[in-house]
Amino acid sequence: MRLSDFIVREAVVTSLSAKTKEGVIREMVNSLLNSGRIQPCDVDEIVRAILKREMLGSTAISRGVAIPHAKHGSIKRLIGTIGVHASGVGFDSKDGSPVHVIVMIVSPEDRPGDHLRALDSVSRALRNEPFVGKIRSAGTLENMNQLIDSPESLG
Amino acid sequence: MSPTQETPQDLPTEVAQSDRVLKAFKLVSIVNPQGFHMRPKAAFAESAGRFQSEVTILWEGRMINGKSMWDLMLVAALPGNEIRIDALGPDAEEAVTALAELIETDTGDTI
């Protein structure tokens, strides 16, 4: 699996505007809604599921990257989106540093293998710090699409 | 045989005297129904970080740094899959015992 297999291009947000962790998560779930990949009636539940998971421990890893995620019964095939926050948003990371690149994953309830392979592909792409820098400065959906399709995204 | 002579027979003694660098490893099976997902990976990295020893996981022929979340995310191990935990250092055995227990008793959550 690679990023291009599950990142919903139309749902990528190159400039997140919310100022809080919850706000950013809602902004990204709304973006999945606007792309037509989730239903309006599921938005609140998906936001709650992601926040509940964050309560168990922040999904901020390091290098300003977080991977909030949840499973939801309405999802038939794993989807994801990427959000970039220029000034950084608090994400309860261990070292307290803000997060700039957020990769959100929403999975079906019964496909743990897909979820693990998605994490693998996120790590392959974003363990490369210069690539994280390019994602941060992409600015446009067109640039972001090029990055998602680039050989660099394979790690 | 003089101890100053370097012969193959002398080498094990030298290694044993070289300040308690020990190796340990164990094969463990994933029991969490969701596999080795992010929360257990984070718990593993945090626990591994408390030991002085280097901790690695052998997964699909790759050596994975057990103290790095970025590395652990590459371990897409499902329930029933086996991973090998290796430690190298003064507390290698304690590290492997603790980390193996973490994996073997992680019956999971649903998130």
Please tell me about this protein's structure.
- The complex is a heterodimer of chains A (155) and B (111).
- Chain A is of the alpha/beta class.
- Chain A has one domain (3-150): 3-Layer(aba) Sandwich (Mannitol-specific EII, Chain A), CATH 3.40.930.10.
- Chain A is built from six helices and four strands.
- Chain A has helices spanning 3-6, 21-34, 43-55, 112-126, 129-136, 141-149; strands at 65-66, 69-71, 79-89, 99-107.
- In chain A, strands 1, 2, 3 and 4 form a four-stranded mixed sheet that branches.
- In chain A, helix 2 runs antiparallel to helix 3.
- Chain B has 111 residues and is α+β, with helices and mostly antiparallel strands.
- Chain B has four helices and four strands, in the order H-E-H-E-E-H-E-H.
- In chain B, strands 1-4-2-3 form a four-stranded antiparallel sheet.
- In chain B, strand 2 (54-59) and strand 3 form a beta hairpin.
- The longest helix of chain B is centred in the last third of the chain and has 13 residues, at 92-104.
- Mean pLDDT of chain B is 84; it is low at 1-17.
- Classes of the chains: A alpha/beta (155), B alpha+beta (111).
- Chain A binds chain B through residues 49, 52-53, 56-57, 59, 61-62, 67, 69-71, 112-113, 115-117, 119-120, 122-124, 126-127, and chain B through 33-39, 42, 69-71, 73-79, 109-111.
Strand content of chain B: 15-25%
3D shape of chain A: globular
How far apart lie the N and C ends of chain B?
Answer: 63 Å
Q: Which two chains have the most extensive interface, and how many residues on each? A: A-B, 24 and 21 residues
Q: Return the string of H and E elements of chain B.
A: HEHEEHEH
| Low-pLDDT segments of chain B | 1-17
State the helix count of chain B.
Answer: 4
